[in-house]
Design a protein that fits this description.
One of its GO terms (cellular component) is Golgi membrane. The chain has 665 residues and is of the alpha+beta class. Among the domains are: 46 residues; 83 residues, Trefoil (Acidic Fibroblast Growth Factor, subunit A), CATH 2.80.10. The chain is built from 17 helices and 26 strands. The strands form seven sheets. Strands 8, 9, 10, 11, 12, 13, 14, 17, 18 and 19 form a ten-stranded mixed sheet that branches. A five-stranded antiparallel sheet has the order 20-23-24-25-26. The protein has a three-stranded antiparallel sheet with strand order 2-4-3, with helices on one face. Strand 5 and strand 6 form a beta hairpin. It is globular and about 100 Å long. It starts with a helix and ends in a 16-residue tail after the last strand.
Amino acid sequence: MIVISVNFNLVMLRRRMGKLNNSFVWGIFFASATWSISLYLYWLLNMNGDNTINSTENRLSYRFVNADQRNELKNNDRSIATLEGKNLLLDNANVNEKFSGNMWKYQKSKSDYYSKMKLKEKYAKHLGLKMTAQPDNALDNQFGLIRNAEDVRIRDSGYSVHAFNTLISNRIGNHRGLPDTRNKLCRIQKYSEKLPKTSVIICFFNEHYQTLMRSVHSILDRTDMKYLKEIILVDDYSDIDGLHDAVQKSVNELNNRMRKEEEMIETNNIDVESVVDYINDDNNVVDKKTTERNKDLLSIRLLKTSRREGLIRARLYGAENSVGEVLVFLDSHIEVNIDWLPPMLARLAEGVDKETRFSHRAVTPVIDVINADTFEYTASPLVRGGFNWGLHFKWDNLPKGTLKTDEDFVKPIKSPTMAGGLFAIYREYFNYIGKYDEGMNIWGGENLEISFRIWMCGGSLELIPCSRVGHVFRKRRPYGTGDKEDFLLHNSMRMARVWMDDYVNKVIEHNPSAANLDLGDLTSRHNLRKNLSCKSFKWYLENIYPELETGENEVVNKRIAALNDVEKNKFQPWHSRKRNYTDSYQIRLKNTSLCIQSEKDVKTKGGGLVLGSCIRILNQMWFETSRFELVLGRTLCLDASNNVAPKLSKCHELGGSQEWKHKGS
């Protein structure tokens, strides 16, 4: 019986295994069929009948490199492209291209080598290719990794000399993708093809080489060339060994490549292999006809002052040597964002006077934040420029009612002052209103002076929301003049004596030492104001910047008025309640440029507080309510319930640990 039972069990086991094997085979068959169909459908979706190239949204350019140059790229990731049996290398590629029925296959690559400026874009129309946008990676999270002692040296030296993380800046290289921080409506705005040509002027003193060159490359990568006449770099007598020569070499290389590129298009010599060979051949002869044509092409020029002049006079030197209709002044540690230039040019062109042929306005971009420690690029909110009686520039919230509709987020916004580092203005208007005050030294005060002058002498100053430029905000200014002169106070008082009338006394109240400063000769600036028939500073305060507090009684009256305007407390459902905000501000540590901000984002409950550079970002903006709450970013309340350190908590509207009052009130 035992033998029979065992035999029976073996027979049943074989039958079950047979069924299992059949099921397994059929499962593999159906799975393979499903994957085959999916891959075929995916291939059909991507092959739309047109020859396509995928390009990064920010129009990064690409460099074609001959196969013989592979050894030069030993330390960089590389992509191999195959066209008719010939291997080519392509830097910074993440593309899928089809040329004449042959598919180019690329692996994702990343290289710090020069990427040929918009090569694919310029040749696309000649090769019958359609451009489609693809996102790009903004920042490699490994860029800040310390691998050895040399990395530590580079980082620490960078902080000492430049006040930002040069290790990360070096690793980023000349090109990177940036987030599009514009309002969504900006992306559908249309601008005229016939806008004025621009001279971009960048002045620098002992700037970090890689950061400076990325500033230049960002302009080339994200600017339509038809709007650019020239880029002028002004070296303000830098004394870092080799810096000027290194920049000059890079400028020469850029100009040569752009000249060759235009020549290829002009001669219609645009087959792919000759493009590759020609662009990389530095021995090509340019004929006289090409030389004449190149006079109208974009050029990059490097100038150098004969002595240390400072930002103000260096900018004047650059402007005097410019030829563009519009001047765009930029700092030397910036990265322009997508379509940054047309919105400013279009606004300037709208206000052109028929007689003078220039507009009486200056425009500024929204200044996004590039973190000095991480080089992370983040969006800034829409704010406008102001100042206090210490003559320090500050950012102000927009007046109530400025942004009522979606369309208001893309309209120009009037600003009482500008930060000064980044703005656009017609060259002739810049000359007409008196350029900069040449009696000012090095840096500081010139931004308020030109702001007052524009408004008081019949012009206007506007923020253009659809134009965004990132700026490295450093915790300190890394260089001075070597002498003991307080040039910021000197410059500010020159401005105050000429433009602020009797209100100069309020400035002296805040800084008594300014009363007896030797300011030099002010005659030419007083004559300028008289010749331009400029209005009074009182007119400016009443019409352009009425928000500025002009006296202690007015401070009290405004606060009382704000409290009287607060709605009476009414019962509201919890999910739809509205807080009664009476004020908003940053909280700054006295005698520093550090502000209190959340350690994490403003929505993280229980988050702690830290000090960071005052840069007007959301997690530094505190909103005070009628219940004396401090609400960070209109989200969470400052709470002191844990008896250790304040933290961010859900607003309970019961006072106690969430009730805060100003000292002395």
